[in-house]
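Incident log, support desk, overnight shift.

02:14 A customer reports that sequence design results differ from what the structure should imply. Their input is reproduced verbatim below. On-call engineer (initials T.W.) acknowledged and began investigating.
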């Protein structure tokens, strides 16, 4: 049995595959050929869970600012199975006016040491051969690189170990709006990535209920105890992702973006057009989304909901106060 493919490797493999094709890949091409999907693909059907994973991955990629395109040929209008996906390289390249000094190029060369040519696993090489067998050519210099460095929250590895050992964990958790860290005893069931952020889903033993915790809000070290637990029936990862998807769909912000700005490029790609040239953007966590929006300063105006308007104003007021207020 091949080793499990991490979420990062699956997303990275998907981006590479979509960059390597000019004509685009269908969903069936991707699920049957790309590393991280092909291991779970069933040629005779029964891929509903895998298709939902692909839909979430598409949103994660777009949230990162990657211009993922959907191509529907006129003859295939309405036939979703024939929709093709690609990442146009021209739109993903650096702007023509971006240049680097010799010192910056030297630093980039050092950073390139974190990448290895020919680093594809055996599974990845077989997936690449499968793509070629479909008549899809790829650029080998691009496909042959994979990152060695991975930036995860410090809590990720101890939580993953506790899930494997089926041991209860104890950690401090800081909820938005609170200034006191609270201890949580949790039977961890699954680690999931949603919206580019890692979450742990499990049973909060204090509340005696299922909960999903954001790893970036875990304060201090995660303590793995010797207390064991029985894994419940079902698919906890799927249940966690379904819950996060429902929260994401329910939370909608209406934004007004200044054209030709960083906010328009980044938030615009995450949203959908609304009336009067505005953009509707969905989000999972109000506090984190308020942080993101406030970082764009005057480039974005929040129109609704009111709680997001208030949260962004608080953050902007805190910035002003931290810099001594209005000095005239």
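02:41 Re-run completed on a clean worker. Output:
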């Amino acid at each position: 049995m091949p080793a499990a493919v991490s979420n990062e490797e699956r997303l990275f493999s998907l981006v590479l595959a979509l960059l390597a094709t000019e004509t685009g890949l269908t969903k069936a091409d991707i699920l049957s050929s790309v590393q991280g999907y092909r291991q779970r693909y069933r040629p005779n059907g029964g891929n509903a869970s895998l298709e939902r994973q692909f839909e979430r991955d598409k949103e994660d990629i777009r949230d990162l600012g990657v211009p993922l395109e959907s191509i529907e040929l006129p003859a295939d209008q309405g036939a979703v199975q024939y929709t093709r996906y690609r990442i146009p390289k021209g739109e993903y390249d650096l702007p023509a006016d971006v240049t680097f000094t010799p010192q910056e190029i030297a630093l980039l060369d050092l950073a390139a040491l974190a990448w290895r040519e020919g680093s594809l696993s055996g599974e990845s090489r077989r997936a690449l051969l499968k793509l070629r067998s479909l008549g899809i050519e790829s650029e080998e210099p691009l496909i042959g690189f994979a990152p060695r460095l991975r930036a995860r929250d410090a809590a990720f590895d101890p939580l993953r170990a506790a899930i494997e050992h089926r041991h209860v964990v104890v950690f401090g958790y800081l909820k938005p709006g609170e200034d006191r860290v609270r201890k949580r005893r949790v039977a961890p069931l699954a680690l999931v990535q949603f919206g580019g952020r890692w979450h742990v889903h499990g049973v909060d033993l204090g509340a005696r209920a299922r909960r999903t915790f954001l790893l970036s809000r875990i304060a201090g070290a995660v303590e793995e105890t010797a207390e064991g637990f029985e894994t419940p029936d079902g698919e906890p990862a799927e249940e966690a992702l379904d819950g996060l998807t429902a929260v994401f769909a329910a939370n909608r912000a209406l934004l007004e973006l200044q054209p030709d700005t960083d906010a328009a490029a980044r938030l615009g790609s995450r949203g959908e057009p609304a009336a009067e040239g505005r953009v509707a953007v969905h989000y999972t966590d109000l506090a984190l989304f308020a942080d993101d929006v406030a970082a764009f300063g005057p480039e974005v105006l929040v129109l609704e909901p009111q709680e997001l308007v208030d949260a962004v104003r608080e953050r902007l007021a805190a910035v002003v106060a931290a810099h001594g207020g209005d000095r005239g």
